[in-house]
Amino acid sequence: MTQKMIALPIHNVKLLDDITEIIFDRALKRQNYTHIYAQMCACMINDPKFNKLATDTKITFQKVLLKKCYDVFYTNYRQELNKLKEKMKNDKMVYILLFVYQVPKRRMSTLNNFQFDFNKKSICNCRFIGELFRKGAVPEKVILSCIRDLSKENYENYELQMHCLCTILQLVGPILSKTSYDLNKPVNKLLPSINNHGMSTTLKCLIQQVKKMHSKGWMDEGKK
């Protein structure tokens, strides 16, 4: 499959973007195969002919792919939620049901589904970014930027923020531990959530796994 993708005659930005979108979309939706898509992307990025268009542009497959990762990574939850509400209002039937007659169950179900999908996509994107780094498809500065941003206290959905940080650290910790980067800061950012009664059991287990990996010098790579 990878060789067939590399053999495709791509000579314009639109086609490159379309192909990248297909791969990116499948990588996020098929989370059990994220590492396979990351390996495919690494091969495509490392192929000089495929990674650069046969034009004078500076656009590459790697840049287009990272742009899509960044777009999801930095998507603002509140802004997307407001867009959904605005879309619901523009749909007359939905507006009547949810806002005029105020059907609480229907409205709550719609919003809950949105939050679930948003969280899932964000976590899968972080897993994909981590796998890309493991396969050598993205530079170290990209993954460090993600870790630094997730370690800041500027996220509205704090639990999602910590879940994403855990996901990335589990994947890239073993590699970064061999560099000069200090992993104590992002790990210490996670620890207070263990005693936070408002956090889910799933997240607490993830944090414990990261804590254990860190204490053992990242010898155990944990779940992929």
From TrEMBL:
Highest taxon of source: Eukaryota
Ranges for domain MIF4G: 8-180
Entry's Gene Ontology cellular component terms: eukaryotic translation initiation factor 4F complex
Gene3D superfamilies: 1.25.40.180
Entry keyword set: Initiation factor, Protein biosynthesis
InterPro entries found in the cross-reference section: ARM-type_fold, MIF4G-like_typ-3
Transmembrane segments: none
Molecular functions per Gene Ontology: mRNA binding; translation initiation factor activity
A Pfam match: MIF4G
Similarity remark: Belongs to the eukaryotic initiation factor 4G family.
PANTHER family listed in its UniProt record: EUKARYOTIC TRANSLATION INITIATION FACTOR 4 GAMMA (PTHR23253), EUKARYOTIC TRANSLATION INITIATION FACTOR 4 GAMMA 2 (PTHR23253:SF9)
Name listed for the protein in its UniProt record: MIF4G domain-containing protein
